[in-house]
């Protein structure tokens, strides 16, 4: 079965960077993209970006353009989200999620979430 | 930019009752909308996609419908495990355009 396992919680100071990982199993990693979605206290959901696990091509929400990078390592079946210049508004639970089917416009499989806390 | 507006914010019901949740899209992108359920401490779970198709393993008491840019999720008879927060979601014509509604909390009366 499809599983997405994320790295653990992080505590960062304002201005720092954070990198969280998402390791996939149970399917052909390179055949699907992986999305990153965050959930701040609030509590709605916000799409951050996507990586084509096969080619490494990326798409980012305009909101995060310039301070986000999503990469992947096909040998480790792992995708990474790096967010730079952190502020308290980046405090959130970050999920990786795989799309459903060929269009991949719906998120069918989710990781357990990685809590990022930004605090001085 | 797509904006999804969900109503009501909270729905207080008893097990066995019918729940109807609404999601209005600010612009039409066809019947390409999903519903998710989220329980405390868990990731969202895909319930419905393409407005009315149940995802794998989702019980038949969950159904979705659409009329223009107005989408609905109906739970025909609430089970105790159905209480939680429900979100609608669309991806627009541009691949970077994703939108989620603000959520409807279904709690026990």
What does this structure look like?
The complex is a heterodimer of chains A (120) and B (109). Chain A is globular and about 40 Å long. Chain A is built from no helices and eleven strands. The mean pLDDT of chain A is 96. Chain A has 120 residues and is an all-beta fold. By secondary structure, chain B is an all-beta fold. In chain B, the strands form two sheets. In chain B, strands 2, 4, 5, 6, 9, 10 and 11 form a seven-stranded mixed β-sheet that branches. Chain B has a four-stranded antiparallel β-sheet with strand order 1-3-8-7, with no helix packed on it. At the A-B interface, strand 5 and strand 10 of A face strand 5 and strand 9 of B.
Coarse shape of chain A? globular
User: In DSSP terms, counting alpha (H) and pi (I) runs of 4 or more, how many helices of chain A?
Assistant: 0
Helix content of chain A: under 10%
Using only C-alpha atoms, the radius of gyration of chain B works out to 13 Å
Can you summarize the main beta sheet of chain A?
7 strands, mixed
- Sheet-strand content of chain A, in percent, reads over 45%
Number of strands of chain B: 11
Task: Label this structure with key terms.
heterodimer, A: 120 residues, mainly beta, 0% helix, globular, B: 109 residues, 7-stranded mixed β-sheet, 4-stranded antiparallel β-sheet
Task: Set down the secondary structure blueprint.
The complex is a heterodimer of chains A (120) and B (109).
Chain A: E1 3-6, E2 10-12, E3 18-25, E4 33-39, E5 45-52, E6 58-60, E7 68-73, E8 78-83, E9 92-99, E10 107-110, E11 114-118
Parallel strand pairs in A: 2-11
Antiparallel strand pairs in A: 1-3, 3-8, 4-5, 4-9, 5-6, 7-8, 9-10, 9-11
Chain B: E1 4-7, E2 10-13, E3 19-25, E4 34-38, E5 45-49, E6 53-54, E7 62-67, E8 70-75, E9 84-91, E10 98-100, E11 104-108
Parallel strand pairs in B: 2-11
Antiparallel strand pairs in B: 1-3, 3-8, 4-5, 4-9, 5-6, 7-8, 9-10, 9-11
């Amino acid at each position: 079965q499809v599983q997405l396992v994320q790295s653990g919680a992080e505590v960062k100071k304002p201005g720092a960077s954070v990198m969280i990982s998402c390791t996939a199993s149970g399917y052909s990693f390179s055949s699907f993209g992986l999305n990153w979605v965050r959930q701040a206290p609030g509590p709605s959901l916000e799409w951050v970006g996507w990586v084509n696990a096969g080619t490494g091509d990326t798409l980012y929400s305009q909101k995060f353009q310039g301070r986000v990078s999503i990469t992947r390592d096909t040998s480790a079946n792992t995708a990474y989200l790096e967010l730079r210049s952190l502020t308290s508004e980046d405090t959130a639970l970050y999920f990786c999620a795989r799309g459903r089917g060929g269009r991949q416009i719906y998120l069918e499989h989710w990781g357990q979430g990685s809590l990022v806390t930004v605090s001085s | 930019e797509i904006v999804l507006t969900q109503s009501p914010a909270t729905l207080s019901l008893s097990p066995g009752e019918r729940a109807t949740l609404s999601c209005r899209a600010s612009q039409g992108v066809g019947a390409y909308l999903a519903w998710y359920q989220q329980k405390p401490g868990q990731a969202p779970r895909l319930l419905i996609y393409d407005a009315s198709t149940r995802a794998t393993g989702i019980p038949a008491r969950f159904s979705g419908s659409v009329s223009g840019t107005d989408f609905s999720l109906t739970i025909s008879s609430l089970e105790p495990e159905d209480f939680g927060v429900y979100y609608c979601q669309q991806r627009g014509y541009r691949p970077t355009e994703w939108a989620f509604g603000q959520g409807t909390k279904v709690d026990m009366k």
